[in-house]
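Our consortium's second objective concerns turning raw sequence data into structural hypotheses that experimental partners can test. To show how far this objective has progressed, the report includes one record in full. It was chosen at random from the queue rather than selected for favorable results. The single chain below, 269 residues long, was entered without modification.
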Amino acid sequence: MTQKVAVLGTGKIGEALLSGMIRGGWAPSDLLVTARRPERAEQLRARYGVEAVSNPEAAKAADTLILTVKPQDMGTLLTELAPHVPADRLVISGAAGIPTSYFEERLAAGTPVVRVMTNTPALVDEAMSVISAGTHATGAHLTRAEEIFSGVGKTLRVPESQQDACTALSGSGPAYFYFLVEAMTDAGILLGLPRDKAHDLIVQAAIGAAVMLRDSGEHPVTLRENVTSPAGTTINAIRELENHGVRAALIAALEAARDRSRELATGNG
């Protein structure tokens, strides 16, 4: 791989991406990083053998720029970068809620921009990264983004109009599962189990269920029915979940997350 790639604002997700790229075969000499604090830049250089540079230097030297700063810091970063980014650079944004048009308006005319929404399981190479093309991005640009993000999990192309829904479902998705595990752990304690044993039981049940969903090819309704025997324990639990409106609450929660993503896209932070 001869393309030079720079990760700008290398926090946890940026570092996970950097690490995944190196494991996937990218040479450290083809990778650049930037960080706000000099000690963080030095840490990355020592850990991965990559060159740490300033944001303008990265913009001048790299063929692909991956912007991983927080959404509220993106405007400041683009102001710093704009004079140094030629129109043939690929700019990949990992900032939630910010549309590609935001970047296109602030960078040189014709700059290709790809929007990527990933999630925190990138830290364990199990991310889902959702990829959308801006006005000037081609299929080749999308393929390059996929090559980069496939190092930390799966990728999926969607129209940018679906990004807010994907943010609600997948970007925020791990938090819903953590919330459920937390609640089930509390239930286990109420039922008389020690916290650590309740946690281990629930985590393994979650892993097993996820693998079956991924690998069996069965619809989740079928898998649930396979656990649900007549007049048994599971159907009694399901009845209580339905009585308490858990399904409706989940749908409402995801709609709220989608709506918030839309607000962020319009600058209503």
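The partners drew two points from this record. The mean pLDDT is 94. The longest strand covers residues 127-133. Both points have been shared with the crystallography group to help prioritize constructs.
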